[in-house]
Design goal:
Length: 273
């Protein structure tokens, strides 16, 4: 099913208001912008609603603010996709940036997939608030216990060590810290430069993608015009536009259709003559 949702599928023409309404109604949320779902938590719960219990909600962080926490949510989602054998690659590095277009496209795909499973009907037996609260409480409890345990060990087990190393420790720290700081600074600068270059390359790719997508959309609109919609060439072009992602023979199929149609037209013309 995932591979059959092509770039020209009607799923990708669903507006953001409809997507937001779909999310808010099913999950009892109040999102006003697409990018508010960039953390991946919403997507995890939509899959949990479609396949109740399939998502380990205690691993989903609805308070994710950093890219690291968001990536962890998408890892959970990708594991669910793998478990369900859904052949869909998640572009995590783009989604966590919060760009509206990237997140809208992914949510459009997700809506199409979920609707294909449940027929577009809402699961009345699913309690989204309860599932979110359970996950959040489990997560907070584990973090609290882990933090408390760490503090206790630090307070009880390291008192003598601190006092015995009070004179020698700071000197060692300064010498190693200075070298480590210089190395860290150089690494940070190198990584920052690499990130900037990657962002520029990504922006260029996005512009190129939007450019060619616009051309494909113009071709589709032209082929849908009543005057030429049923013309052999238009039908052949639409066979290519609407082909599945995994289908490699779309061009051959379109060419065969065009050849057969033209042969029929030629034969009819010869009979009339």
């Amino acid at each position: 099913m995932a591979s059959s949702i092509g770039i020209m599928d009607s799923a990708y023409f669903v507006g953001r208001n409809e997507i937001l309404s779909w999310i808010n109604n099913r999950l009892h949320l109040n999102l006003s912008r697409i990018e508010e779902a960039a953390s991946g938590a919403v997507q995890c719960q939509l899959m949990d609603m479609t396949y109740p219990g399939i998502v380990p909600m205690h691993k989903v962080n609805f308070d994710a603010k950093t890219e690291y926490d968001m990536i962890q949510n998408y890892k959970v989602l990708q594991e669910v996709f793998n478990k369900l054998k859904i052949a869909k690659h998640i572009e995590v590095s783009r989604l966590v940036k919060g760009r509206p277009l990237d997140n809208l496209e992914f949510l459009q795909w997700l809506k199409r997939y979920c609707d294909s499973v449940n027929g577009g009907l809402m699961n009345e037996n699913y309690n989204p608030v309860e599932r979110r609260d359970k996950g959040g409480k489990d997560r907070n409890l584990k973090c609290s216990l882990k933090s408390s345990k760490t503090n206790i060990m630090n307070n009880t087990g390291s008192g003598n060590t601190v006092s015995s190393n009070r004179t020698s420790g700071p000197k060692q720290f300064r010498s190693s810290g200075a070298a480590g700081g210089a190395n860290s600074s150089a690494e940070i600068q190198a990584l920052s430069k690499e990130i900037t270059e990657l962002k520029l390359a990504n922006d260029l790719l996005e512009k190129e993608r939007d450019f060619y997508f616009g051309k494909l959309r113009d071709i589709e609109i032209l082929c849908q015009a009543p005057e030429v919609e049923d013309a052999p060439v238009s039908v052949a072009i639409k066979k290519i536009l609407y082909a599945d992602d995994a289908k490699e023979s779309a061009l051959d199929e379109a060419q065969d259709y065009l050849d057969q149609t033209m042969n029929v037209i030629k034969a009819e013309a010869e009979i009339e003559d």
